[in-house]
Design brief:
This protein is α/β, with parallel strands linked by helices. Helix content is 37%, strand content 21%. A 7-stranded mixed beta sheet has the order 14-15-16-13-12-18-19, sandwiched between helices. A 6-stranded mixed beta sheet has the order 9-8-7-10-11-21, sandwiched between helices. It folds into 2 domains: 261 residues, 3-Layer(aba) Sandwich (Aldehyde Dehydrogenase, Chain A, domain 1); 188 residues, Aldehyde Dehydrogenase, Chain A, domain 2 (3-Layer(aba) Sandwich). α2 packs antiparallel against α4 and α9 crosses α10.
Amino acid sequence: MNEYPELKLYIGGSWRTTAETLPVVNPANEAVIGQIPVADTEALDDALAAAATGFETWRTTSPGDRADLIRSAASLLRARQDEIAHSITLEHGKPFEQARAEVIRGAEFLEWDAGEATRTYGRVIPSGPGIRHIVHHQPIGPVAAFSPWNFPLSQPARKVAGALAAGCSLVLKAAEETPAGALHIAEAFHDSGLPAGVLNLVFGVPADISQRLISSDAIRMVAFTGSTAVGRHLTGLASDHMTTVLMELGGHAPVIVCEDTDVDAAAESSAIRAMRNAGQVCTSPTRFFVHESVFEQFLEGITRRSAATVVGDGMEPGVEMGPLANDRRLAAVVELIADATDAGGEVTTGGGRIGTTGYFHEPTVLANVPEHARIMQEEPFGPVAIVNPVDSLDTAIERANSVPYGLAAYGFTNRADYIDRMVDRVEAGNLSINTLEASLPETPFGGVKSSGYGREGGTEGLHHYLAVKSVSHSTTTA
């Protein structure tokens, strides 16, 4: 198996290093595994110029040719999945098999949007004699894209897929903690023959990069996935330049467990999903509102399965959950759990750090946590499930909607009237019933309220990357 890759910037079709670097740390053992090049002002300006030039080439490339090249890059990711997964597990900590699945998911995002590249239809508006009204969808221009550290390949792949399929170029700023996934994406497109400047990859100091990119007149759109706080800041920067934004921000997903459901099955699947990626998923099920008649049964089931989660180095076979991705996340989870127990919450399993080396935390279930505890209002982004009883579906929906977030939500019930009530009243961009899958390549994904706006995936996924132009054409001479 290959070692961790040498990290480089990718600008104007060429690879480059820099004198200044930052360390990349393996969260399982805290060893430094690589050095990330820090883009300076000159490198960022070169990337902006390259994206402007690349856009002029890519916008005139036929949708079919764009789709073929995107599919070629996706095929390379599939062929290299073991090598890429190895890099992801080293830098992020997630189990190797989950890292392999992430590579395939990233390839699927590319493949879906490649198809959508050929379906950016316009329309003809009925009109009177001698006049034609036609609506065109055209690529909006160079994109500044920012991807997070929790999914090192699939998150940047989603940004790249949408931008390139629509005919845009982009400067991708990937996460410094987990840079290898984006590097492998750039390599796949480079090896597939993407014209120079269409995709550019930079790393460095986030505040410096965002300020330089978003303030540039070359950038016509900002696409970001990350925390609500950072999303608000970037939106403010973009608003100063009237630049379009696509924001996929934080969540705090409620799960409503009704009295008529298969309680044991719901508890089993909930525990597995809550601990996936060590809970570092914006759609992770976090706040469970369980009907009081089945509360104890559900709590016992999710506690038992969570406690059985196999935690360890993601390279070890059989491991289900690796470490948290960085020391900041570990400290935040520890603090939130302490606050919850101080407020009167009960720890039914887990609750603390594992060992002293690596950023491991126990899979944790909290019960009967009062609403004023911080963890009821703040996304834990860690391996924590909060389980509280409710007396009715109406109460559950009210509690579900009580936070500023509205990204994903879930419900377990077999009653049609309960489903209708959830569909009508739960405030979320994505609602899943009797499944904990919130996002697929073919379905639109995004949030409401403080979880952002705009959609990635589905037929809606390219909308933000396209400008609408209305053309009125008189066929008679003046």
